[in-house]
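HUMAN: I'm a chemist; might I ask for a sequence paired with its structure tokens?

ASSISTANT:
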Amino acid sequence: MSAPTLSIVIAVKESHANLAAIAERLDAPPEIEIIYVFAGMPKSDWRMPDRARLVVAEASMLIPHLWRDGIMQAGGTAVALLSAHCVPAPDWVDQLLSADLHSYVGVGGAIGLDPRCSALHRAIYLLRYLRFAPPFQARSVDDIAADNSIYRRSALLGHADLLAQGFWEPSFHRRFTRSGLRMSLDPRLRVDYRGRESGVAFARQRCEHGCEYGASRAAGRPLLRRLAFVALSPLAPLAILGRIILRASCRIEYAASLVVALPWLAWFLGAWSLGEARGYLKALMSSDAESAVH
């Protein structure tokens, strides 16, 4: 049997209720490989679609860890990533197959907001996906959302040190841009966020993501720069909230969501700030330890 041209990795954590809708949109041809990666065992009433593969990770694993496990299992020259908190558009697979991975190392798409989302999930959307809200024009960018994306798999495997920690996309994207590789946003590649995660789980993910971001951002920086990162980290929530307010105020539907989402946003931004500061301190202590050894 020949190797697949495309592997689709679906990370499933607290999103069982979306799986039926996702499966309806993934009627893929045989040369496409579909891998479901679950945090913990699937529920007993879930029936794995034909030709799909199942990978089961520890229940404590976060979505970037699930993506990592799927990437490592994938056989396609291209790998598409999806969070099961998002439901693809009917033509999603067709758009993946037409993505320009010759010019770009990765292509990301649009992420819309399901109008049925609660205040909690509107807050998550505003924090994570508002930058990718449709409509927008196709363009080259430095960052895309892994929740709706496709990459050259060889480029991901080429950074084994990062992948061992999980697929935290900002770290990969910084490496790509530093080496001259480009990414793009394509509005035709569309999913809708239909969140199912709990507030506690998302706050934990924000803290862990903030820690990874802080540690990777500070790595290799001069001592004074690392100290400045630590000192300024409490201001990060205000800067992020300011950007969210600016973006949301341009669209009435997002401005209305912002009002009901503010309490949740405050919690999540605080979790990120705590994690980011922890990451800076981790990088600071690691660098000091290395200096002491040498």
